[in-house]
Amino acid sequence: MSLHWEGEEQDAQAARRAAAEHEELLAGARGDAITIANEFAEVRVVRVDTRNGSRLLVESPKSGQWVSLDPLELESLTWQNTATFSAMIGNPFGPLVPEATGGIVEGGDLTEGGNEPGRQLPEGGSQ
User: Fold this and answer.
1) Kind of pairing, strands 42-50 and 29-37?
2) How far apart are CA 98 and CA 105, in angstroms?
């Protein structure tokens, strides 16, 4: 007897595509990977060159999760405040903004103050 679930083949195809993309990124690695760890987490980062420019590949060896970020995506991390990171940590393995919303956050935006005059800078932010 063999157990199967709805969407099993789609999950397997997505996993194969992700593995192939990961291998392709690693083929463009430049320099040695850097590992940063503490008692809560471990990540490995490496610069990879792609046909669209350099990216930073960030991997979690423990979970197998990874993401590649271009320079603008990396810079956008500096625009965030601690509440954004707390929200991400509070919802592990899930998106901060669900894809079904098309990037639109109901009931306001994710940033404090938006574009209103006199808005506060994020913690640690500068202009």
Assistant:
1) antiparallel
2) 9
